[in-house]
Amino acid sequence: MSDVLRGKTIAVLGGTGPQGRGLARRFAASGLDVVLGSRSAERAAETAAGIPGNVAGLSNLDAASAGDIVIVAVPWDGHAELLKELAPALAGKVVVDCVNPLGFDKQGAYALHVEEGSAAQQAADILTDATVVGAFHNVSAVVLNDPELDSVDTDVLVLGDDREATDLVQELASVIPGVRGIYGGRLRNAHQVEALTANLISVNRRYKGHAGLRVTDV
Length: 218
Hints:
It is built from 8 helices and 10 strands. It has 218 residues and is of the alpha/beta class. It comes from Streptomyces cathayae.
């Protein structure tokens, strides 16, 4: 673990869901202090008790207040409402949005239109006193939660407008064995990365796998 992350607490809002729980598991395994947030503090505490490492469970508000780096892994339907509620607690923090605005029908997953351009841009519009970074959109929750897998074979595209913040989140991604954090451009390009998750879901359905991404020649 790099010195820049040492001693920092990672809060995961929506930490009882598959993606949030999986990220929390991997961060805790790397030695980081982790706080799970949920609408129900009791449910968060129950989930935290099942994850090895220094993991606590709190309400979303208390988790947002406790975290140095805060990951947003909530359902798209409640994304804007929750961030508006938590904006004061998130002021001054690096907020990592990994929400994918997707719809599903008989043909499979598809990207939804977002007025602001992407979930990450919506977060940035709401959290004007925080630094928003987009990351962890395309990582399989199944893989993250599999205790038999010591390494996660994927890269994580990190998007943002603040170099110090994107460097920090790249370091955070890279604490997970097998993962590299790769700078993927400005926040305005987050919609492409969020939408790509629909393609990966289609890949997984066809090939019965848990596909991830690798960036070559970097």
